[in-house]
UniProtKB/TrEMBL annotation:
GO terms for molecular function: serine-type peptidase activity. InterPro entries: Class_I_gatase-like, Peptidase_S51. The keyword Iron-sulfur does not apply. Keywords: Hydrolase, Protease, Serine protease, Signal. GO terms for biological process: proteolysis. SUPFAM superfamilies: Class I glutamine amidotransferase-like (SSF52317). This is Cyanophycinase. It comes from Croceitalea dokdonensis DOKDO 023. Belongs to the peptidase S51 family. The keyword Metal-binding does not apply. Residues 1-25 form the signal peptide.
Length: 279
């Protein structure tokens, strides 16, 4: 019990040193509530610089597809991977760093509990060769990262050719149009080959075709959607390979503004594909 208490205090101290803490005064006799904007979990070596290959990895939720994740990590060229999320913990650290057999230098997970534009956070984004957005609530991602220095740093990372990706809510923020859970917003991230698109996840499992078609009707955008356990990996030429479990019907959907639907079934090796460059 003493070890657990000390560990918790150490994590709190490190988090405060990393991003700064604020306190809210409570009634007399009650201790103040400490708010930590960001908690960091780090695995690996000090930062290095490599030349990433760029690309996008979009996953429809639930368990990650290992081969798609290997594709994502390999495009970091042995560099540093940054995981950004607004809930959860360090579940990606060991998975990315040591369980997939891909050589990378480090994995750092930042868990955002509030909006912050701390310079140390910006530095982490600027030093990454790969950025992964975990699942959660895309409304929080928009609230914490849009129209501020975080968005500017993320866009700069995309522009310098980092590989970027996300699952569930993390995929939902990659298109030009983002459904926050309350409204459709624009002018967040500008990702190559995702111009004038709206992305959707958990697609067949939650019967979201009608919803996505309604969003397309409202915006005039194209739609890209993925079933659970399904990944869409887009390389620098715009070729979108679809990964899934063979024989399980893990599908990706590409829908035009005229509501023409192209369905691509995922495979273990991502052999089936769709060309976003001439879509």
């Amino acid at each position: 019990m003493l070890y657990l208490k000390c560990t918790a205090k150490l994590l709190l101290i490190l988090s405060c040193l990393f991003t700064g803490c604020s306190t809210q005064k409570k009634e007399d006799g009650e201790p103040p509530t400490i708010q930590i904007p960001v908690t960091s979990f780090y695995t690996g070596n000090p930062n290095i610089t490599t030349s990433p290959l760029g690309g996008i990895c979009m996953m429809g939720g639930r368990t990650e597809n290992d081969n798609a994740m290997r594709w994502f990590l390999n495009r970091a060229q042995g560099g540093d991977v940054l995981v950004m999320r607004a809930s959860g913990s360090d579940g990606y650290n060991d998975y990315f760093y040591s369980e997939l057999g891909v050589n990378i230098n480090s994995v750092e997970t930042l868990v955002f509990n509030a909006l912050t534009e701390d310079a140390s956070i910006i530095d982490k984004i600027n030093q990454a060769e790969a950025i992964w957005f975990a699942g959660g609530d895309q409304g929080n991602y928009v609230a914490y990262w849009k129209d501020n220095a975080i968005e500017d740093a993320l866009q700069s990372a995309i522009d310098r050719n980092v590989v970027i990706g996300g699952t569930s809510a993390g995929m939902a923020i990659l298109g030009d149009y983002v459904w926050t859970g309350d409204a459709i917003v624009t002018d967040f991230l500008d990702v190559p080959y995702l111009h004038n698109t709206l992305t959707d996840t958990h697609f067949s499992e939650r019967n979201r075709m009608d919803r996505l078609q309604d969003f397309i009707g409202q915006t005039g955008a194209k739609g890209i959607a993925a079933d659970e356990y399904t990944a869409i990996c887009v390389d620098e030429t715009g070729l979108a390979r679809v990964f899934g479990t063979d024989g399980e019907g893990d599908n990706a959907f590409f829908i035009t503004p005229e509501l023409q639907i192209e369905t691509v079934t995922g495979s273990a090796n991502g052999n089936n594909s769709f060309n976003l460059a001439n879509w």
